[in-house]
Prior knowledge:
Its EC number is 7.5.2.13. GO terms for molecular function: ABC-type transporter activity; ATP binding; ATP hydrolysis activity. Pfam families: ABC_tran (PF00005), OB_MalK (PF17912). Belongs to the ABC transporter superfamily. Carbohydrate uptake transporter-1 (CUT1) (TC 3.A.1.1) family. The protein is α+β, with helices and mostly antiparallel strands and about 400 residues long. Helices cover about 25% and strands about 30% of the residues. It is built from 10 helices and 22 strands. It has helices at about 45-50, 95-105, 110-120, 140-150, 170-185, 195-200, 220-225, 230-235, 265-275, 360-365, and strands at about 5-15, 20-30, 35, 60-65, 65-70, 80, 155-160, 190-195, 205-210, 215-220, 240-250, 250-255, 260, 280-285, 290, 300-305, 310-320, 320-330, 340-345, 350, 355-360, 390. The strands form 4 sheets. A 7-stranded antiparallel sheet has the order 21-20-14-11-12-13-22. Strands 6-7-8-3-9-10 form a 6-stranded mixed sheet, with helices on both faces. β9 (about 205-210) and β10 (about 215-220) form a beta hairpin. It starts with a strand and ends with a strand.
Amino acid sequence: MADAKLENVRKTFNDGQVVAVDDIDLHIEEGEFLVLVGPSGCGKSTTLRCIAGLEVPDSGTITFGGHDVTELPPKDRAISMVFQNYALYPSMTVYENMAFGLKMRGADKEKIDEQVRWAADIMEISDLLDRYPNQLSGGQQQRVALGRAIVRDPALFLLDEPLSNLDAKLRAVMRTEIQELQQELDVASVFVTHDQEEAMSMGDRIAVMNAGRIEQIAPPEEIYHDPNSLFVADFIGSPSINFFEMTFDGSSITGDEFGVDLPEAVAEELRDGLPGEDVVVGIRPGNINVTDAGTGLVDIEVEVVEPMGDTKILYFDLDGQRVNAVVQSTERVQEGDTIGLEIEWPNVHFFRPDGPKVVKWMHATEGTVPGVPGQPDDEVRADGSPSGAREEGN
């Protein structure tokens, strides 16, 4: 096993005019499954290609197990790579495709046969070894591509959007199979995807990339519950987080439709962290609760109800802004109903308008009240929201 480190890696194109990877630092630990996720053009595939040796960085260093491999060609890096297109040779059988890399390296026939059959057994394709790629389904071709990658017994396993060509049901199956394969091999792996659902379900850690930079690296739960920027909060999570542009006066926040007096611990963080009075408040759809009209923070009409099985997504228009909330499917809410909304204030995030997060409510006041994270006893109403919460105009 080996780890991999990228230090101050930078890669540009078009004589430096296009910055694909912008001085990133990244450590893939031994046996870790790390996911690089971000929108198209964010630099995730270029980062992977630099790790693989398919691109040489303009500056910075890449090490495997403490050895500098920055200038080494791919064949000398002990890596295996799986691409979006399976890159199988159509004129070769499955066996020949899987054996090709070992054959080119001069491995003896006995070793080749042993490795190919070992990999085929792991990928459950032993009965396909005599077939040609055009005789295989998409899922079978993907298994062959994965099998071909692992026959080399790599020190680092690289996967560049390998599931993009599969339908949704097969993607879900292959996600599980890739995770099980990685755990069995216990090899450091980097998986590139633009699909945040894949990232959240597969990675030990996730590196969220944007414009050539890594915005945040953390386990999936932390990325979702404690995003460190507007971009990460917006990119990760479905349905998307709700953002409200509000004004902070030193002790409370006020928006067009509602406001709230803040616990001193939260207000102090905002006074220290905000460059001015503007603040962006982020609230996950699952942290907005439905109540009877006239009993919540805001009364609002339900515009759209989107059934999702165990849950429903409710969509509203709040002063021209689309707002969504997630409720249980048993909640009796229909389009056109007027309902009240309550906010789980401890789970609210506060961001600077230029992107960085200042604080999460519960982190500023954690531990002040057992069982009610986020606020002192005298600031908690019976429904768990702060006593200072108010609907503007009331």
